[in-house]
Amino acid sequence: MMPITDIPLQAYLVVAAVLFCIGVWGLINSRNAVRVLMSIELMLNAVNLNMMAFSSYLDGTQVRGQVFAVFIITVAAAEAAVGLAILLSLYRNRDTVDMEQFNLLRW
Amino acid sequence: MSLALSTQLICFLLLSGALLLGALGVVLLPNVVYSAFLLGGVLLSMAGLYLLLNASFVAAAQVLVYVGAVNVLILFAIMLVNKRQPLRPMRVLLLRRLLSVGVCLGLLALLVQVALTTPWDLPGPPSIGEAAITRIGEHFFTDYLLPFEVASVLLLMAMIGAIVLARRDVLARDVVTGAPADQALLERQRPPLLPSQDGSSPSAPSP
């Protein structure tokens, strides 16, 4: 068996996969709208971790993964700002943050 | 990063453990304020993992943008919409939770399978370490110049959109009498646009 000379790339990928799945579970099951936004942040961070792992292990000279991660952080910041503004607007109109009561578009 | 392998392994295990436990706390804790603070811990652990991956610039950006801005924004949102109400009981909530656990475990199995069986092209070119900051700058001003500029437009649009969505309509003068508006009335209860869930019709605005 080959001795380990570095942390394997797969370790980072597995951590990111677990984090992504936790985010998906929280997105489906949260009843507080703020927690839904937090779950989305978790999922975006999992994707970022994948980008950084690939950038470091497979693309060490042209660090394009890091460039993509900066763009993802930008988009995530914009998403958080608009999402929380929508949340405030929803709270003023419906007087609740329970996701189960935002059922106006339910078929 | 010029650390011994054992140090790297210990750092990786500690940071991953903090990351995953914190993420579980974010989605499972009943109090959303604790979730928000744990989210800050998760984001900081993520910045530590970035440092392990030779990405000091993105780690700094992570701390500044996520911990400094997004997490504080989420805390402010919790403060603004903090309504202690008992949640309406759902009929098949437990079944739904178990089903979604099954779906998420299946997704996890798929992702792990792909990560472990794909023949990655390892080892890649050697990492350039701290020179990555210079390389990111070169990328931003040469081949990624257009996305870089579009990102600034996106941020401007998000800022304007957030202001438009979240602001209150403020009138300086009363529409009927022309008298200066009582600023205390800006915080008055506004009638909801839709009938509330318990069946009562929206109350007419009091004169």
The total of beta strands of chain B comes to 0
**Major sheet attributes of chain B:** none
Class from secondary-structure proportions of chain A: mainly alpha
- Determine the N-to-C terminus distance of chain A: 57 Å
Indicate the low-confidence ranges of chain B by residue numbers.
199-207
Distance between the termini of chain B: 69 Å
- The percentage of residues in β strands of chain A lies in under 5%
**Helical segment tally of chain A?**
3
Oligomer: heterodimer
Greatest chain-chain interface?
A-B, 81 and 90 residues
pLDDT average of chain B, as an integer? Answer: 84
H-E string of chain A:
HHH
**Major beta-sheet overview of chain A:** none
Number of strands of chain A: 0
List the SSEs and their pairings.
The complex is a heterodimer of chains A (107) and B (207).
Chain A lengths: L8 H21 L3 H25 L6 H31 L13
Chain B lengths: L4 H24 L3 H21 L3 H25 L12 H25 L14 H10 L3 H22 L41
Helix pairs in contact in B: 1-2, 2-3
Commentary on this structure:
The complex is a heterodimer of chains A (107) and B (207). Chain A is mostly helical and 107 residues long. Helices cover 72% and strands 0% of the residues of chain A. Chain A is built from three helices and no strands. In chain A, helix 1 runs antiparallel to helix 2 and helix 2 runs antiparallel to helix 3. The radius of gyration of chain A is 18 Å and the shape is elongated. Chain B has 207 residues and is mainly alpha-helical. Chain B is built from six helices and no strands. In chain B, helix 1 runs antiparallel to helix 2 and helix 2 packs antiparallel against helix 3. The longest helix of chain B is centred in the first third of the chain and has 25 residues. Chain B is extended and about 75 Å long. The termini of chain B are far apart. At the A-B interface, helix 1, helix 2 and helix 3 of A face helix 1, helix 2, helix 3, helix 4 and helix 5 of B.
